[in-house]
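Duplicate of #3305? Posting structure anyway:
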């Protein structure tokens, strides 16, 4: 009888867990450099990678434009941003949380 109960579950009933769906999202932590635009912040992300030839650790910086719906972040805040669908020409990230002020 337990086999019949298990066979009642169809493919349409399958709901993936949150852990599997969020596994593909990129997450970055950086410092807010600008809040001059409406609902947009500029986040500077610092990545430390070894030099390909000399193996010395070097810093690579990149600017991300992130969507801040409530304009919560201020310049100098440490924030976590998450990749999302394209919102505008440059914005592909949204503010997930403010880590420190």
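Output from current build:
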């Amino acid at each position: 009888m337990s086999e019949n109960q298990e066979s009642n579950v169809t493919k349409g009933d399958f709901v993936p867990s949150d852990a599997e769906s969020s596994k593909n999202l990129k997450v970055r932590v950086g410092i807010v450099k600008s809040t001059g635009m409406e609902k947009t912040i500029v986040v500077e992300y610092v990545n430390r990678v070894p030099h390909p030839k000399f193996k010395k650790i070097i810093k690579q910086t990149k600017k991300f434009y992130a969507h801040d719906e409530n304009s919560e972040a201020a310049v100098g805040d440490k924030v976590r941003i998450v990749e999302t669908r394209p919102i505008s020409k440059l914005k592909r990230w949204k503010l997930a949380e403010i880590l420190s002020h």
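Confirmed duplicate; merging threads. The longest helix spans residues 2-7. The CA atoms of residues 44 and 63 lie 5 Å apart.
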